[in-house]
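This section describes the prediction task in plain terms. A model, or a person checking by hand, is given the sequence of a single protein chain and must write out its three-dimensional structure as a string of tokens. No templates, partner chains or ligands are provided. The sample shown here is typical of the held-out split.
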Amino acid sequence: MKMRHVWIVFKKEVRDIIRDKKTVITSILVPMILIPSMNILMGGGVANMQKGINENVTIALAESSDTPEIAKLVEEKIIFNNPNLKLVKTENPVDAVKKEEVRIVLEFEKDYSAKLDEGKPFEINLIYDKSKTKSEGALGIVSEAIRNFNYNVVQERISALGLDTDILEPTKIVEKNVADPKQGGNMIIMMTLPLMIGLLVALGGIPAATDLVAGEKERNTFEPLLTTKPDRASLLMGKYLTVTLFSMVSVAAIVAGMVIGYAVNPNSLTMGSGEQVGGFYIPPLAGLLSIVITIALGMTFTGIQIALSTYAKSFKEAQTYMSFLIFAAMIPGYATMFMQPNDIQTFMYLLPVLNTIAAFKMILGGLINYVNLLLALGSSILYVAGTLWLAARLFNKEKMLFRS
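The expected answer:
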């Protein structure tokens, strides 16, 4: 293998792929536009849904409870401290809930007044429609208002007995966070960004890998390529580096797209959760190691993709084989999606895909452990060597290259 020949093959393949608009769109434009657009829509949708649930919560009284006394109790004792709750009148309360004219209907027990005066509990039925998001969301809001009403009534009764209302709270909860201020936070980013990086690194090079070997075999240009001056090792390495480049370009495209999406709408990164982005510091060395680990993961998948493309008889067959690679990235990605950096165990830094996800969760969470980063890097190098060996082995076998 000669590096001059590798460079010639690399430049030739890159030029060919750039000319192929389909590959450019799949590897660069789609990740840069589609994913941030989905995040913006999802974030805006979640924020709007939360806003719609929490605002203008309309309440009606059941026909059996629609009296001036109960209306006064609800307005002056239950919802008086909740400006978003509003009592309205309607002819058919239950139908009004189904038609989304009101969110909740309150039905008081018939002898509620006597029980309230006697200090006995009485029932309030909350009638809602579980199939309606706003109605179900209002259930918690109204329930909280009733719990506050209960607490206020108990306080009044305790005071009437001449007792201190502090007896209602034998303990007071004070939260103290012992985590480093640089750790934690940015939970949504820690959930989504490592998953996206793992998926894109695994899948970003598929269009290029499919075209560079299986595609050339189908176009009958592969045999003439083997007769050129570069030996097979140089040809393989040139194609290998090209696929790796485009898998990394996909990651760069999605990161650039997420930055653009955040500039357009900050909710695109937090999925409308209202979480503030920022507050973490990534040491340059830790960031560099994570990038190298990501590149190594891309090279690992490149070796697998080149091997599958070499084995495949046609472009379509190669696509079929490579479609299964999505599971190799999705399963570990979703399995660790809700993990915090402290939850990640050491063995995860030794497994493919998981090691990259774990490294990014670590640095995004502010929990820097260089030993684990080096374990991830070392294991990644071994996987790169193994998959490259597999690709080279198949690439050098005539019965694999020209399998019929």
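For orientation: The chain is about 65% helix and 5% strand.
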